[in-house]
Structures are given as structure tokens and as C-alpha cells.
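re the bet — no i am not wrong, look at it urself. input seq straight from the record:
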Amino acid sequence: MRVLVAVIVGMAMGAGGATTLARQSSLMADAATAAAVRAVKAGIVEGHRTKNRAALDRLYAPDYTALDARGGVRGKAALLDGLATDPDMAEGRYDLRSIRRWGTIAVASGHGRMVYRNPDGTTRVSEYDSVNVFEERDGRWVYLAAFLP
């Protein structure tokens, strides 16, 4: 429910038009927030590359949810349980491009580029754009949700 509220708030704020923007100085995240959520996202990519379940467990919120364009939903437990059988990642990078903050919620758009190793030694590249939601809980940022292609 929190994720849905965050998305609705983000969409409403974005659709508010010039009048709303003129009344607000900026909803862009401050430098400290941007650095913190970028560090979380970098840790997520590295955790998947190294299949480090403990690191990912700390970075994903307990109620993390990923939604994809086909209507698929995946929670934290399924994500962590799938690590052992996930394809090996040779390299990965995810750049957060635009980060906005509302209280304890930060929403960021970004672009990922992951290179996976196939069993035969060849590689395949996955590039995608997505939306990421983070929440500050107990003084630290966690990855709350993703909206994937």
C-alpha cells in the first residue's frame, strides 16, 4: 500500500502543472539523499553480481515489491530465494538519473546495463530503464520498490 501511495503521490506531483511548480522551490533530492540512494542502488547491483544474500537482505526493505510491465509481481523473499539459480552477472551498472524526495520517500528514474554470462561462456547484455522507490527507515535508506519493463 505504501508503494502505491508513493507512486500516486509522485504522479500527482508530476501532473500538478506549472502552478504547483511555481509554488515549490524544488522536489529534487538534496545531495545527501541522492548520494545515499545511489549507494543503495549500487549495493543492490553488486549484491546481485556477487550473489551476496546477506548484503541484499540489508538493502531491500522487508516489504520490497517489484512490478513489471506484464503485470508480474515479485517480493523480497522470492528475489532472495532465486539468487542461487539467477544467471551469473559478469558486470553491472545502474545510473540513477533523476531523484525526487517527498519526506521519507525518494523516487528515482534510471538506466541499467547488466552483462550476464551464459553457460556456454558467451555473454548477453540487458539494458533497461526503470523507476525505483526508496524509503528512509530508522535513519537508513532501503530499496522499497521497482517498476520494471
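see?? Residues 2-148 form a domain with the Nuclear Transport Factor 2; Chain: A, fold (CATH 3.10.450.50). told u. also Residues 4-9, 15-23 have pLDDT under 50 and may be disordered. so pay up
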